[in-house]
Amino acid sequence: MRLNQVTVPCTDYGASVAFYTTLGLVQIVDSPPRYARFECPQSEDGSEPATFSLHHVEDWPGGDDPLVYFECDRLDETYEDLTGQGIVFEQSPADQRWGWREARLRDPAGNLLCLYQAGEMRRFPPWRI
Questions:
Q1: Which residues contact 12 (CB under 8 A, 6 or more apart)?
Q2: 87/80 Cα distance (integer angstroms)
Q3: SS (H, E, C) the chain
Q4: Contact present, 81 and 73 (Cβ < 8 Å)
Q5: What is the pLDDT of residues 64-112, one digit of tens each?
Q6: pLDDT digits (tens, 9 = 90+) for 17-31
Q7: Which of 65, 56, 53 is nearest to 100 (CA)?
Q8: Is residue 127 part of a domain?
């Protein structure tokens, strides 16, 4: 698993997009007023940049909580391995309308986590700006 993305809730879409753009993130998805995604600046080692997203709180399944995404090359196998070790998931792996396959769980403190597999759809969805 690789830490890939963190999504945070927002209350003012425009102000949040402006803030994170000013910080130097490059906006790659613009779906106002509910969702925006950014890439972090390219690292010097040439590795793929991590992504960061905003989701409006009125349409956010996590309520007021952030959601941390871990990318898995083999999501279904990872899910089977973790459930075999006693990890409980709120959602088993399922295909999403945005082209990702996701499974969701919470850590012992209640923080929401998403294990996912996206391939090219992670950085290059058809709606990329």
A1: none
A2: 10
A3: CEEEEEEEEECCHHHHHHHHHHCCCEEEEEECCCEEEEECCCCCCCCCCCEEEEEEHHHCCCCCCCEEEEECCCHHHHHHHHHHCCCCEEEEEEECCCCCEEEEEECCCCCEEEEEECHHHHCCCCCCC
A4: no
A5: 778 888 888 899 999 999 999 999 999 999 999 888 899 999 887 688 8
A6: 998 898 788 999 999
A7: 53
A8: no
- Residue 115 domain-assigned? yes
- pLDDT for 19: 85
CATH number of residue 105's parent domain: 3.10.180.10
**CB contact at 8 A, 67 and 9:** no
The pLDDT assigned to 62 comes to 64
Share of the chain above pLDDT 90, in %: 37
Asked if residue 41 is part of any domain, the answer here is yes
**Residue 79 resides in a domain:** yes
